[in-house]
Amino acid sequence: MGRKKGVAEFDETAPDDFDPANPYKDPVAMLEMREHIVREKWIDIEKAKILRDKVRWCYRIEGVNHLQKCRHLVRQYLDATRGIGWGKEGRHPSLHGPKVEEVESE
């Protein structure tokens, strides 16, 4: 007997039978939903870390021109960090603060 070779398989979607109105109705679905939420949060956190490293690299490489050259990376990083983390509040990311919309001028 041995271990299976390859990547561990898991379902990447939220469970279909989870009822948010009555989460304790199906404890298995509740645990699957909790695992799904934690997995998605970790993915968002790791994406933000990758963007943070890109911003650091851009600042170091561009030097005095970093304000113009790295602006797009900083915006991506700030958008990626909006609403992620392990706070007690379960607010949706859109409710975490005013998001400034860009106005395109011609």
TrEMBL record:
Keywords: Electron transport, Membrane, Mitochondrion, Mitochondrion inner membrane, Respiratory chain, Transport. Coiled coil: none annotated. One of its GO terms (cellular component) is respiratory chain complex I. It is found in: Mitochondrion inner membrane. The keyword Transport applies. It is a peripheral membrane protein. Residues 88-106 have a biased composition (Basic and acidic residues). Residues 9-19 have a biased composition (Acidic residues). Residues 1-23, 86-106 are annotated as: Disordered. Its main location: mitochondrion. It comes from the Eukaryota. The keyword DNA repair does not apply. PANTHER family: NADH DEHYDROGENASE [UBIQUINONE] 1 BETA SUBCOMPLEX SUBUNIT 10, NADH-UBIQUINONE OXIDOREDUCTASE PDSW SUBUNIT. Belongs to the complex I NDUFB10 subunit family. This is NADH dehydrogenase [ubiquinone] 1 beta subcomplex subunit 10-B isoform X1. It comes from Herrania umbratica. The gene is LOC110422843.
